[in-house]
Amino acid sequence: MSLAKTEFIVRIRCLNISVQSEATLNKGLADVEHNAIARMLRNGLAVVGFAALEDFIKRRTAEAMQEVSLCAIPFNALPEKLRYAATYEMLSALSHQLGLIPKDDATGNADKIDYIQGQALKIASTTTASYTLSNHTFAHSASNVHKDVIGNILKSLQVADPWRQMTIISGHLGLGSHSLVQQYESAAKRRHKAAHVASADTPSNDISQFVKDAFAIAIGFDALLSKSIQKYRENATPHNSDITAAEISIRTVRHQNSAWKEHNNLNARAYRKSNDLAVLSAAAKQRSNTAKQLYVEFDENSIPNDWECY
To answer: Residue-wise over 173-209: b if at least 16 C-beta within 10 A, else e?
Structure first.
């Protein structure tokens, strides 16, 4: 199970609860102090919410590099973009990460030495049959994660037109068919304004929409990433053609008409239904595992509770 995914779900669901709390909602014009506090809290939520998504992209990609390392594909047979990213393109990431390691009063720069030696060993391991790709191969050369970085991660793992594929998956899940790359850019600008403009006033509706967009981006990213690695693991060779959303079969569990219903691969008719979510969820996950599907579970308000990429 992905720890990056587990912690992301907790954070974004907490964001969703927070933005609905009374403390973040404006009252009448006479409640000047409350409204000022609410505005400040909403700005803070815009910042930490976007940071949670960036953190997920970094950490899930780091997990993916460990998974690729175990796929039995010779390093020289990996896609060219991935080989470049795991070797000489890592130099900018190493430089950035070194700048984040403080000098210790007792040991001086020992932590920096340990870090660079460890990363150098991983880069050097790519000359051997048993290599280990660095967890800093992608998304660690800057503090923020640009939209192009997300696209390049998936392109390096042979996903075609990544943002378009994520948008298609989002539509299939009912999380919206709007352009996810535009939503990501808007959220990044909103985060920047909330963090750096003292007069910023982030609307509650923008944060509520971000909750759905963040889940859509994270699930789509993970589904495409995991599908590519699944095929690497099974075939021990790069793909003959790039991965698209058409290869992502989906199974969902939703709350509809006072019951939990399982739907298979966008079929409008429920495959199973139950009043016991735990029982239905366990069985649906097993069926998803057998069929190598993306499993997504929604709560009563149509917000994702969980997902698994099999």
So the answer is: bebeeeebbebbeebbebbebbeeeeebebeeebbeb
